[in-house]
Amino acid sequence: MSATTPLLEVRGLHAGYGATRVLHGIDFTLAEGSITTLLGANGAGKTTTLRALCDMVPATQGEIRFGGARIDGRATEDIVRLGVAHVPDGRGTFTHLTTEENLVLGAYLRRDRAGVAADIERVYGYFPRLRERRRQQAGTLSGGEQQMLAVSRALMLKPRLMLLDEPSFGLAPLIVKELFGILRTINREEKVSLLLVEQNAAMALELADHAWLIETGRVVLSGAAADIRRDDAVRRAYLGY
C-alpha cells in the first residue's frame, strides 16, 4: 500500500436489511493512523455502515477496500483476520465470563500465547480498573467498565482499524472524557486507526481528525473535524448552539 492509498476506501456502498435499503451509495475514505467520525441523526445509516464494513450486513452494491484490497463479500472472520476490530453498540461483553477471560477470548485468532499475555498486561496499563476487576464476572461491571472491556477486547486482536459504535452511550460525562482520552492515546501509541460512530457530536469532533456527515444513507458533508465543527448548519443541528 503506497503512502497515498487510504487504509479504508468505501465507494458507492449500498446495504440494508431485507427489502429495507439503508445506505444509498455511501462514499468515504479513512487515512492510516487517523481518527475519523461518522456523524448523523438516528437512522441515518451510521451503524449500518460499520456493520457493512465487516460483512455483518451484506453490501448489495459498491466496493470496500482495506489496505488496497477488496473486502466486500468476504466473511466477517476473514475481515477480522486482516485487522478490522468492531466494538458494537451495547458493548457485547460475555457477561458470565470474568474480565480476563473476555480479554483472552478477544485474542482467539492468535497463536502467540506469550504475546497475548503481554498484551493483556498492556491493556491493563490503559485501563487499570480492569486489572482490579480481572477475576470479576463481566456482567457485574459498571457500564463504563464494560465499555472499557469491550475496547480492550478489540485491542487484543492487534487491529489496524477499530470500528467503534456509540462508545459513550449511557456513560457519565467524566467516564466518557476518560475513555476518549484513552482512545486518543491508543491511536497515537499503537498506531490503530479509529472509525467512530457517536451521538455525542461535540466529543467526536474534538477527538477526530476528519468527519463525514451522513443523512438518510448518503454522505452530505465531509472535511477536517475542526472545519466541520465550525459549520453553522452542523452547529445548529448536532452541537446545539
Written description of the protein model:
- The chain is of the alpha/beta class.
- It has helices at 46-53, 76-82, 99-106, 113-126, 128-132, 143-155, 173-190, 201-207, 225-230, 232-239; strands at 8-17, 20-30, 35-39, 59-66, 69-70, 84-87, 161-165, 193-197, 210-215, 218-224.
- A 6-stranded mixed sheet has the order 6-7-8-3-9-10, sandwiched between helices.
- The protein starts with 7 loop residues before the first strand and ends with a helix.
- The mean pLDDT is 92.
Taking all residues together, what is the mean pLDDT? 92
Number of helices: 10
Number of self-contained structural domains: 2
Termini Cα gap:
42 Å
Q: How is the CATH topology of the largest domain named?
A: Rossmann fold
Describe this structure in a few short sentences:
The chain has ten helices and ten strands. The chain is an alpha/beta fold and 241 residues long.
Can you lay out the helices and strands and say which pair or pack?
Blueprint (H helix, E strand, L loop, with lengths): L7 E10 L2 E11 L4 E5 L6 H8 L5 E8 L2 E2 L5 H7 L1 E4 L11 H8 L6 H14 L1 H5 L10 H13 L5 E5 L7 H18 L2 E5 L3 H7 L2 E6 L2 E7 H6 L1 H8 L2
Parallel strand pairs: 3-8, 3-9, 6-7, 7-8
Antiparallel strand pairs: 1-2, 1-4, 4-5, 9-10
Short descriptors:
single chain; 241 residues; alpha/beta; Rossmann fold; six-stranded mixed sheet; four-stranded antiparallel sheet; 26% strand
